[in-house]
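Slack export, channel: ligand-projects

TW: morning all. Re-posting the request from yesterday since it got buried. We need the structure predicted with the small molecule present, not the apo form. The ligand is pyridoxal-5'-phosphate; the SMILES is in the block with the sequence. No rush, but it would help planning for next week.
GE: picking it up
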Amino acid sequence: MVAENLHEVKEKIQKRCIEVSRDLSEIKLIAVSKNFGVEEIEQAYNEGIRDFGENRAQELDIKYSRLGDKIIWHFIGSLQRNKVRFVVNSAEYIHSVDSLLIATEINKRAGSINKVQKVLLQIKTSDEETKSGLTDYNEIRDLANYCIDFPNLDLVGLMTIGPLTDDKNLIRKSFSHLRKLRNRLNSDNINIKELSMGMTSDFEIAIEEGSTMLRIGSAIFGQRDYSTSWKEKL
Ligand SMILES: *Cc1c(COP(=O)(O)O)cnc(C)c1O
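GE: finished. pasting the full token output, ligand included:
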């Protein structure tokens, strides 16, 4: 199942890259394994996937203890201060930094284990109330500059979650906003490259708008079953 799904997803990514003249090697595919077990992760790993995304600190911590450093872990969920140290211990990338408080804590925890933590700022690019992330340009630029000044943070890019809608223009607007924001920050002497955007329902639009990191879950692993806890699947 996972192997076939992955094959299909990779084919779609490749096809869209050709259509918009993008180099496939610019785009990292992150398999979002939240709510799936170690077995499914191993299946994707055997198909050559090395980047996996998780959105709960405890779930990531347990999977990290089982699978370790052979996997490049991406933390993509909302982050509480008291969970930061678990995430810093395991994640290569943290995509969801949206406050100075969290950035400060990540820098401190990374410093205590002599690590330089790669981070992205989470940006709210749609009007949906439920989405979190930064919106104000000055606030974003200031936080980016703080991250650059922290010795144990490496700011690599921006992340957003597209709006939950069938309106492709709205989704496109959200992703192109993130790209323009990155370009504007770069013209303000902030040197970042990554755009983490695009999930199962909208990754093709994200590729067209410049995504460099796709976070894809259900198209690879199938529908998530929330009727049983992730704890029972490990
Ligand atoms: C769950 C999740 C994804 C993957 O969603 P799918 O629709 O299953 O591809 C991507 N990004 C974030 C932040 C998520 O929480």
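GE: first-pass observations. Strands lie at 28-32, 51-54, 72-75, 93-97, 117-122, 153-159, 194-196, 213-216. The pocket of pyridoxal-5'-phosphate is lined by residues 32, 34, 55, 76, 161, 199-201, 215-219 (CB under 6 Å).
TW: perfect, thank you
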